[in-house]
Design brief:
Elements (H helix, E strand, L loop, with lengths): L2 H16 L4 H9 L5 H8 L6 E3 L22 E8 L2 E8 L10 H17 L3 E5 L10 H17 L5 E5 L2 E3 L1 H7 L3 E5 L4 E3 L3 H8 L5 H5 L1 H8 L4 E3 L2 H12 L41
Parallel strand pairs: 3-4, 4-5, 5-7, 6-8, 7-9
Antiparallel strand pairs: 1-2, 2-3
Length: 285
């Protein structure tokens, strides 16, 4: 094979990986008001800073016709880049590829990113848009989630872990974000639930909408799982960029210092009445 042929083959593989699940699925993603995984990464990170890893990884499943459906990247984009010049690691789940569902190879990509974030002492950001475990891989997929959960606990208190819920995430796709440090959601297009409304109806005969069960407003005003909810993908990612400025890179560094006109000895009298004298009385957290 000549050098020219090798470059042509590489370009073809790059194009396959960057097209995700294909034009139709990308169009459907846009029609639902959501950006693709690559568009989200490009908006979040500083221009030209993203370096992708494991771009051509594919799943190893041979059952249920999966051997004929192999897409480079396998539903998750991983790598490192910078936000306002600060280095971080990132993974973005691609809903256009198998609904963003997790396979064994996919899990290995995410685990690698989390391990590197801990090794280098920098934050890790997950852009979540996934239906959960890839059912065709069964216990292999579930085992992959166990590996990710382990990294969540090992990274806890070591490097900041930020989860951005940007689609209908269920099952394992929200167990992991729920134990990270900060969670942001997008109103009307992102959901977090252990299992969806259809299963709830089947098991408990209770009819509940996706929004009531796990929408951004439910988790930001009732359950407390979500820290902040924003109107759309663009606003959410812009606020994550701003939020990064306030965080230390790891547990050995102090948070960035920024001057403020607010005096350190200013008296705030409202704090005296914020918590009732009677410990049995409730108050607004």
């Amino acid at each position: 094979m000549s050098l020219k042929d090798m470059f042509e083959r590489l370009e073809k593989r790059n194009a396959e990986a960057e097209s995700g699940g294909g034009e139709k699925r990308v169009a459907r993603q846009h029609e639902s008001g959501k950006m693709t995984a690559r568009e989200r990464i490009n908006l979040l990170l500083d221009e030209g800073s993203f370096v992708e890893m494991d771009k051509f990884v594919t799943h190893r499943c041979l059952d249920f016709g999966m051997d004929k459906q192999k897409i480079p990247g396998d539903g998750v984009i991983t790598g490192f880049g910078a936000v306002n010049g600060r280095k971080l690691y990132i993974f973005a789940q691609d809903f256009t590829v198998f609904g963003g569902s997790l396979s064994g190879a996919y899990a290995e990509k995410v685990v690698k990113i989390m391990d590197l974030a801990m090794k280098h002492g920098v934050p890790v950001i997950g852009l979540n848009d996934s239906g959960g475990a890839r059912i065709q891989e069964g216990v292999v997929s579930l085992g992959g989630y166990a590996d990710i959960f382990l990294r969540n606990t090992l990274a806890s208190g070591v490097v900041p872990q930020i989860s951005v819920i940007m689609g209908p995430c269920a099952g394992g796709a929200v167990y992991s974000p729920a134990i990270t440090d900060f969670i942001f959601m997008v109103k009307d297009s992102s959901y977090m639930f252990v299992t969806g409304p259809d299963v709830v109806k089947t098991v408990t005969h209770e009819e509940v909408t996706a929004e009531e069960l796990g929408g951004a407003m439910t988790h930001s005003t009732v359950s407390g799982v979500c820290d902040r909810a924003y109107e759309n993908d663009v606003e959410t990612l812009q606020m994550v960029r701003r939020f990064i400025n306030y965080l230390p890179a790891n547990n050995r560094q102090k948070a960035p210092f920024r001057p403020t006109p607010d005096r350190s000895d200013r008296m705030e009298m409202s704090l005296d009445t914020l918590i009732p004298d009677n410990p049995n009385m409730p108050y607004d957290m």
